From TrEMBL:
Protein name: Uncharacterized protein
Domain of life of the native organism: Eukaryota
UniProt organism field: Helianthus annuus
């Protein structure tokens, strides 16, 4: 599953959930603050969060 959020027509981050059961999540972001905020949120719900 791949999702993205757009702000002013520009993508702020991508979240890739490769396997719901193993909850491996990769975050790609051009904005450090958005990436950190999203990473902290996801860590509350998933066991494995990888920030790239």
């Amino acid at each position: 599953m791949v999702t993205s959020q757009q702000e002013n027509g520009k993508e702020t981050y991508w979240v890739y959930i490769s396997n719901i059961l193993s909850t491996n999540i990769c975050i790609f972001s051009e904005r450090e603050r958005e990436r950190e905020r999203l990473t902290e949120y996801l860590k509350l719900h998933y066991s494995s969060v990888i920030t790239l």
